[in-house]
Amino acid sequence: MSLFLESIKILNGEIVLPELHQKRVNSTFSHFGISDNVNLEEISDGIRLPGEGLFKLRIIYGLDQSYNFEIIPYTSPKISDFLLVENDEIDYTFKSADRKELEVMKSKANGAEIIIVKNSRLTDTSYSNLLFLKDNVWFTPESFLLNGVQRQHLLHSGKIRETDITMDTLKYFSHFKLINSMNDFDDALVYPLSRIRNLS
């Protein structure tokens, strides 16, 4: 049975962006022709959430509405460098709990975080969406693998714009950020493009 994953930010006892997480769950069930789904609000209401600090609520669920969860303290990973990795076949449209292909790609990167290139277009890292800076405007690749909740939120709020970013046009950007449900726009570290190890 296919299993899917939601990683939800808990900040000082509050669930962050719950509507977007539920929308993604609903879309997953709908894609597979199932009208009933997992209700994240009911799950979180039945959990004693930590009152202070930053935590990740990690829910793994199946299309039969079974689920399990864990709450873990969260700190952003420290990344020293990045590696462009080409994979024209990868598909991560749904947030699957099966991350084997991503893990295999990352295991070959000699400790670097991978930036996945599909059909010569920038997509995501192994765990986040990307933002790139040009002329004081932050852009996100329209060729994403997974349309993350933070990405959707930032586009809707007008903080970022979507554009086509290719291997040829990447040089016109100066810096980049990694965003996901746990790392929002203001908290995400800013890296110079020079941190990409194999950027030509």
From TrEMBL:
Keyword Transferase in annotation: yes
GO molecular function, one term: transaminase activity
Record keyword Nucleotide-binding present: no
SUPFAM superfamilies per record: D-aminoacid aminotransferase-like PLP-dependent enzymes
Keyword annotations: Aminotransferase, Transferase
TM ranges: none
Record-linked Pfam families: Aminotran_4
Name of protein: Aminotransferase class IV
Organism, as annotated: Marnyiella aurantia
